[in-house]
C-alpha cells in the first residue's frame, strides 16, 4: 500500500490498486456472480418488466427493502411483457444487491478481508462499517450506461466518509464500459441527494432532492483497468460508465464503507439499517 494513499485520493478522487485480487480469487468471485444468475427467483421479474410492471411504487419498495436482502435487478430489455426472459439467464441481470457481503460466503470473505481492512486503516477509519454491496454485470450488448453520479448522492454522511471499493472481475476497457471520472470533482461537495420521500401521501417512496447537474462529456477521463484491480472511489467524485458495446463482459464486485466514529449517517438516505441491527463493522 502506498503511504500517499490518502493524498492521492484527496487529489484525484480515486485510487487504482492493481492485482488487488489474485487470478484465482477473481475466478472465485466471478463464478459466484455467475451462479447468482441461475438463482434469480421468477416472481421478482415482473416487478422490473419495463412493459408490464406492477407499478412504480412496487419497484421502489422492492429496491428500498433490499438493504438486508439479496435481490435481483434485471436489464432493460431482458424481459417480455409477461416477465419471461428473452435473453440467456447469464445475460439478464443488471446487478444483484445489496447484502451479498453478509448473506453470501464468497462475497463476505473478500469484503471483510485483511486487505480491505488495511486500506481503511491507511485512510484513517476508526470504526468502519459496510452498508451495502453489489455484483454488477454489464454484459455484452445489454449492459447499459450508468449515468454520471456521486456515491454520496445515495449514501450521505456528515462529514463525508463514504468510500467505494470497485473490483474489476474482467478487464475493463473503453469498449466494454470502464469507469470514467471527473478528476478533482469531489472537492465541490455533494451535488444531489437521493432520499426517502418525506411526503408519506406520495406514490413515490424515494426521490431526488433536485434536478441532475449537467456534466460535459469532455470532462471525464476513462480509467481502463485489468481484472483483479481495485478502484477506490471517493464519495463525492463524479463518475460514470458507458454502455457495453463490445462482445466481452465487464463484471465487477463493489461495496461501500462508511465511518461510524464521530460521523452521522443520514436518516434521509434511501438505504437504512434494519431496525433490529446495524451495518456490520469491519473493525473497531
Automatic annotation (TrEMBL):
Instruction: Check the record and name the SUPFAM superfamilies matching this protein.
Output: Clavaminate synthase-like
Residue ranges annotated as coiled coil are none
Q: Which UniProt keywords apply?
A: Iron, Metal-binding
The answer to keyword Magnesium applying to this record is no
Q: Name one GO molecular function term.
A: metal ion binding
Needed cofactors, names only, are: Fe cation
Enumerate the Pfam families for this protein: PhyH
Q: Which InterPro entries match?
A: Phytyl_CoA_dOase-like
Question: What's the protein here called?
Answer: Putative peroxisomal phytanoyl-coa hydroxylase
Which taxonomic lineage does the organism of this UniProt entry have? Eukaryota, Metazoa, Ecdysozoa, Arthropoda, Hexapoda
